[in-house]
Specification:
Length: 106
């Protein structure tokens, strides 16, 4: 299977070395990105997308997730599970709440 990144680079008639030079990175690093062996942060994804005149979401799949936070007043919720229920968040069946913490059952 071939990555969209590689196909796009080739469609622009650029070698791996030429594209890497434009991006100020090594050809080996770009190859790892194209093959999916190395992920990139948002700034690098934007830089690569700009080189090809495309949007990041046309070339990359976001795979990192960061915890969502909400502001709560002290004492409003006894546990994280209570907050999740009131927020409409579904907790997986393998979690149960004990005392003031959600614990994973083994």
């Amino acid at each position: 299977m071939e990555s969209v990144l590689k196909r796009t680079r080739e469609r622009f008639g650029m070698t791996l070395e030429q594209a890497a030079r434009h991006l100020s990175i090594s050809p080996g690093y770009l190859l790892q990105i194209e093959c999916g062996r190395r992920g990139v942060g948002a700034p690098r994804a934007m830089q690569i997308a700009e080189l090809y005149g495309m949007n990041e979401d046309e070339l990359f799949v976001p795979i990192r997730f960061k915890a969502r936070f909400v502001r709560i007043k002290e004492g409003d919720y006894d546990t994280a599970a209570d907050l999740a229920v009131d927020s409409g968040i579904h907790i997986a069946d393998h979690l149960h709440h004990s005392g003031d913490q959600a614990q994973k059952t083994v």
